[in-house]
Amino acid sequence: MSQRLLNTLQLPLRALVTSSIAIVAISVPLSATAQSDDSFAVEEIVVTATKRVASIQDVPLSVSALSGADLEDSVAFSFSDYAESVPGLSYNGNDPGNDKMIVRGISTDSFNGALQSTVGIYIDDMPGVDVFVPTSTPDLHMFDVNRVEVLRGPQGTLWGSSSLGGALRIVTNKPTVSQAEFRARVTAASVANGGTDYGVDAVGNIPLVEDTLALRVTGYTRTDAGYLDASNRGTEDANETTVTGGRASLRWFPSNNLVVDLTGTFQRIDADDRGAAWLNDPLDPAATATTSDPTTYAYIPESRDQSLAMGNLVLDYDFGNVNLVSSTTVGESELESVWDQTTNTSFPLIGPTGGTIFNSGFFNDDKSSTFSQEIRLVSDDPDSAMTWIVGAFYLDNDRDLRSYQGLLSNASLFPNPLLPGDVQFTQDIDNGRTEKAIFGEFTWHINDRWDATIGARYFENEQDFMTALEFAPFAPGFPSFVSGGSTTTSEDGINPKVSLAYRPSDDVMLYGLAAKGFRLGGANQSALGAPFPLPEIYESDTVWNYELGARTVLNNGRTVLNATVFYVDWSDLQNTFRLEAPLPPIPFFVTAGSAHTQGIELELTTQLSEDWEFHTALTALEA
What we know:
Blueprint: E1 6-12, E2 20-22, E3 30-32, E4 46-47, E5 54-55, E6 63-67, H1 68-73, H2 79-82, E7 89-92, E8 100-103, E9 119-123, E10 126-127, E11 145-152, E12 166-172, E13 181-190, E14 196-209, E15 213-224, E16 241-252, E17 258-271, E18 280-281, E19 284-288, E20 304-318, E21 322-340, H3 342-345, E22 360-379, E23 386-407, E24 423-445, E25 450-471, E26 481-505, E27 508-519, E28 522-523, E29 537-538, E30 541-554, E31 559-571, E32 574-579, E33 586-591, E34 594-607, E35 612-622
Parallel strand pairs: 9-12
Antiparallel strand pairs: 1-2, 1-13, 3-35, 4-5, 6-11, 7-8, 9-10, 11-12, 13-14, 14-15, 15-16, 16-17, 17-20, 18-19, 20-21, 21-22, 22-23, 23-24, 24-25, 25-26, 26-27, 27-30, 28-29, 30-31, 31-34, 32-33, 34-35
């Protein structure tokens, strides 16, 4: 949770008398929740993890859900604020908007941007814009959110290639056509070794035509104070981050059978510097830091400016016993980032006079656009012995990355006259990717106690890669060194799933599950046209997940205890290697080897009284 540990105060503007103080770093949270039921039962959570509405206790797979009320009560703003409360979910806090999500230990890299993520992230029905090789994460601000669903284990049947380890869904609140609503809150927090966080959130719901049409608008801004000092730049609290964004939704009931939802989402994250602390200055070994005084020794600010814009249209038509759902999404994201490269272009500070610092940076402008379309039919007959879902999915993604490395200061003094100006090299990358799939799941309700489910997804993927790399001339009058090329990859396959569920009583469900997931392969773009012995492409990797689970409601509904044991067999792992010579290290990827993870997940929720709820989660993992 970085350095935000103490004194978080939130003030709901609609009712200041209900303001609360929450310790957001607590690992086993006690949350105050208003319950109108005198039995103090744990509130039932309804999820759509299987693309149909169901109680979380009736879903035969490992899924957790955090309600929007609990997220706001605990003042959770982003992934890092709630990830620790979900069993099996972990994250690497790299940079703002670039947290790496990991489920059940399924990951071969610790940061985004190298390989396709193993955790699919969805906002409602919208897949993340960078679904293939993300350099940023759609870390939506947690305000006016209905719930967060975390699906553990591969979700390749219903959710596709980006869910090798699992999927995370952020489900937002929809407009209400029956009544108006307005609420707002102000938040503030003191930051250890830093300044003060502050933010303002507001939401308004307006029925435009009673019982027919409504508009819901959400807006927010927050500033996370920095806590790292850049002593070599004379800057305190250098890593301040500002998040601004909003969402506008229309819900329309043109008839009793049709629901139309139109949603636009925008968010921007501006980070002045990275959040990684350094222990010493590579150019001045005498300069050291301590854990009690976090410091960055980057010689230039390593800033990240990330924007995300998405639009989604959902049509849901009820034919009676079958629903037809169409979900259309368009999205764009852009990331402008800087990485300090000064240590690679400077001479160490040797002796009393030292050397010369030549500030340099690696600059990225990464743009991505996505179009996706899903159409599905969902059966809705509670008396039928067979329920099913069938659908088709299409996705098109284009990525345009422009990068260069250059000197920022003292360029005229750089002791290599072979560099024209301040640019050392440039890199252009263009990728185009399409995914087509058909999928289905069928559940046979054998009797009141037994259910059997079988499902599969057939997919076809095609990817186009182009890269161009240009180095400055080796000497005046010589041409630049240019490398590059293009290639195309394609693959298809089937991801099956089977499960069996047994209900010995109304409060207990036992199930067994086997499911397959995959992660897309791709091209080693640094190898395209390069005179180095690198493989041009790398293949996809796959997992088989086997699990047994129990979903139980105890103590007259006051306690919910869920447990899962699992074993994951991982084949043809995508691994990262580096070519160390003759140029600076060049990363490339190969598929090799196998691995497994196995473990136990426990989740306990108990309603202690009308006002107090206790929740804890435990994961034991061996890999």
